[in-house]
Design brief:
GO cellular component, one term: clathrin-coated pit
Number of strands: 0
Shape: rod-shaped
Organism: Sciurus carolinensis (Eastern gray squirrel)
Pfam family, one: FCH
Structural class: mainly alpha
Largest sheet: none
Helix content: over 70%
InterPro entries: AH/BAR_dom_sf (IPR027267), FCH_dom (IPR001060)
Strand content: under 5%
Number of helices: 1
Protein name: Growth arrest-specific protein 7
Length: 93
């Protein structure tokens, strides 16, 4: 390249590079904005899923207590009463 062409080439190349960097930054900004929106939607979705899961476990806990816990406690109490009766009668013998 001749001296003048070289002097002309460098500013043109710098202008092209500036344009490419500007496009890159704009594209990156769009990507980050979209990611942030999607992340917010995912958080809302996860919150709903966890609320549903919480409800399921609370219902299970209540049902488990009423259908297993209470009857088992009653059996234990009745067993204790029966054992006391047996001890009372054994004392008579």
């Amino acid at each position: 390249m001749a001296g003048f062409e070289l002097l002309l080439f460098k500013p043109l190349k710098a202008k092209q590079m500036q344009k490419e960097m500007s496009e890159f930054i704009q594209e990156r900004t769009k990507i980050e904005e979209e990611y942030a929106r999607n992340l917010g939607e995912a958080c809302v979705h996860m919150k709903n899923i966890l609320a549903d899961e919480e409800e399921v476990h609370l219902k299970f806990s209540t049902k488990h207590h009423s259908e297993v816990g209470k009857p088992l406690m009653n059996i234990c109490e009745n067993f204790k009463k029966d054992m006391k009766k047996c001890d009372y009668h054994n004392g008579d013998l």
